[in-house]
TrEMBL record:
InterPro entries: Polyketide_cyclase/dehydratase, START-like_dom_sf. This is Polyketide cyclase. It comes from Paraburkholderia monticola. Gene3D superfamilies: 3.30.530.20. Transmembrane segments: none annotated.
């Protein structure tokens, strides 16, 4: 099983970053530049990437106490996929977002890593405006 781990430093208060991340339906705004649309039906979310690719995700948990969102990718692209985004306060106006994804098959690593890195850049840029 492959794991991708990223920490994104953001120049905003943890509460501001979490307010933006905690709403799964607002993911296209938080990841603007990588995502262009998102829609929710119950706990299922469909996100559309800038290249037009659409994927289905299931929102597993939105944990306000730990400022943590968990989701998985469905639709047959993976044997298994589970990811979390967690906000950690570093200072009154600075935080980190820790993004961890575990998935199979390992052969998807290059694609997932490239999308994760693009997502990290967008996330850092967009959350700094919160």
């Amino acid at each position: 099983m492959a794991t991708i781990y990223r920490e994104i430093a953001v120049e905003t208060a943890a509460a501001n970053a979490w307010a933006a991340l905690r709403n799964p339906a607002d993911v296209a705004r938080v990841f603007a530049g990588v995502l262009i649309a998102a829609r929710m039906e119950g706990d299922l979310r469909w996100v559309t990437f800038a290249d037009g690719t659409e994927i289905e995700e299931r929102v597993i948990a939105v944990d306000d106490a730990h400022m943590r969102l968990a989701y998985s990718v469905g639709g047959g692209r993976f044997e298994h996929h589970h990811a979390t985004l967690q906000v950690v306060a570093d200072a009154p106006a600075r935080c980190r977002v820790i993004w961890i994804a575990d998935f199979k098959p390992d052969e998807r690593s290059a694609v997932v890593e490239a999308l994760t890195d693009a997502g990290c850049a967008a996330l850092g840029r967009n959350l700094a405006r919160c």
